[in-house]
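Attaching the record inline, Q. Sequence:
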Amino acid sequence: SLPWGVVAALLNDHLAQERGLSVQAATGLVAAFGAGAAVGSVGGAVLGSGAYARRAALLPVLMGATAAAAAVALRLLLTGGVLAAAAAEGGATVGPAAAGLAAVGGALAAVNGANIRAVLLNVTPPEARGALVGCFNAMNNVGRGLGPFILNVYTASTGVSRGDAIAQSLALWGVCGVMLMAAGLTVEADERRLQEHLLRRAVDEAPEAAAPSSAQSSRVQR
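Structure, as predicted:
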């Protein structure tokens, strides 16, 4: 979630102040990212459902691949020369290449958020799911809030430009992607263990639930 906080808080200002784009062009580029994220949230949920229906391990692989691809798309946007070309033409508008990279980056980045809770809930016992969701939401919000602060501390302490620091922060999505794809190696076994645990618990509780019913039935017959 750190790159999400960085993009949301700093990208617009960076594009307008340091990359030669007008405020309108910078805002439009960030809007393209947001529109892509909206499409990616819906489309990612549909793709995730289809992947999970085929095989549970495919879902974290899909999430990891799209997270890593989002980092590549946005890094190309920031370092690939499309912004320099727009600035050279006055910066009043951005071309379709820049807008397309922003939209694709947003769409790919949003696939993870549309599916991660389902993956976590499917490997967590019912009694622990509330705590899991609360912890996940807390860490997600902390990451988004700390992202800009950490980046500012990093640039101040190392002398790295803000643009380079933003581009470097996207590598965290790559790390996230690798970890998610690694989770695909174990998620099916984790789900199977949870189902076996729930089945054993149901079997253990069944006689206890049946005993009062039997006694009550006996009393009614008498």
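Confidence is low (pLDDT under 50) at residues 214-222. The chain is about 85% helix and 0% strand.

More tomorrow.
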